[in-house]
Amino acid sequence: MTDGPxxxxxxxxxxxxxxxxxxxxxxxxxxxxxxxxxxxxxxEPEEMYPGGPEVEVELxxxxxxxxxxxxxxxGLAAVGSLMFAFPLAFDFGDSGAVIAMLGLLICSCAAGxxxxxxxxxxxxxxxxxxxxxxxxxxxxxxxxxxxxxxxAVVLAVWRVARLR
Length: 164
What we know:
- There is one protein chain.
- By secondary structure, the chain is mostly helical.
- The chain has helices at residues 45-48, 67-89, 96-120, 139-161.
- α2 (67-89) packs antiparallel against α3 and α3 runs antiparallel to α4.
- The longest helix has 25 residues, at 96-120.
- The chain is elongated.
- The N and C termini lie far apart (104 Å).
């Protein structure tokens, strides 16, 4: 029928078969007639799961902060806050302001570390969109957080400055 090589290859007796499809040969894309339009190629769903219906299980672990992640953050925050509070509460002489500022710095580092760890497991600040959602944060919420941090820093610096 067509010129070219035979896709079936040579026949065992050495001659080449022709392209015409016979009744007993399959077409290139499978059988032409199937009962009900589907071929039976495996067990029924009831045979595969004799114990009942399938149960979907989440393979990824839950995204939450573990104790080994929280312990150093909490410890650093506690040390920093104590270093900030004790010079303010008791008279430490001239070095009190330096120790208090160092404590404030350590406490701020612990807060930043905690925020980054929380962000990594998917937690967000109230009012801000989740990470990767594509939504922009509301400018009023961001402004409120910036003002809150600015007031805390101004009060801390003012209190430490009063030690001198």
